[in-house]
C-alpha cells in the first residue's frame, strides 16, 4: 500500500472511480480530539480569569 497527500481532483476525474484508491480527509484529529482541545482551552480561559494555574503548559527547560 501507499499513501499520498494531494489536492482533491475535480469532480468527474477518473481518479474517483479507481477501485484500489481510498480517499480520506487530510485531518489528524477526530470529533473527540476537537472536543477535548476545546474543553482544555475553555477551562484554561476560566483558570486564567480566576488566577488558577493553567493546564497543559509546555516546559521548555525540560525540552518539551
Descriptive notes:
The chain has 64 residues and is an all-alpha fold. The protein has a domain at 14-57. The protein is built from 1 helix and no strands. The chain starts with 30 loop residues before the first helix and ends in a 14-residue tail after the last helix. The mean pLDDT is 84.
**SS-derived structural category:** mainly alpha
Fraction of residues in H or I helices:
25-40%
Tell me the β content: under 5%
Detail the poorly predicted runs: none
Q: Write down the secondary-structure element order.
A: H
Write a brief structural summary.
By secondary structure, this protein is mostly helical. It has one helix spanning 31-50. The protein is elongated.
List keywords for this structure.
1 helix, 64 residues, mainly alpha
Amino acid at each position: 500500500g501507499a499513501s499520498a497527500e494531494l489536492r482533491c481532483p475535480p469532480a468527474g476525474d477518473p481518479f474517483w472511480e479507481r477501485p484500489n484508491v481510498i480517499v480520506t480527509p487530510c485531518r489528524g484529529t477526530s470529533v473527540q480530539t476537537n472536543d477535548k482541545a476545546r474543553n482544555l482551552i475553555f477551562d484554561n480561559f476560566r483558570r486564567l480569569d480566576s488566577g488558577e494555574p493553567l493546564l497543559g503548559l509546555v516546559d521548555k527547560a525540560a525540552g518539551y
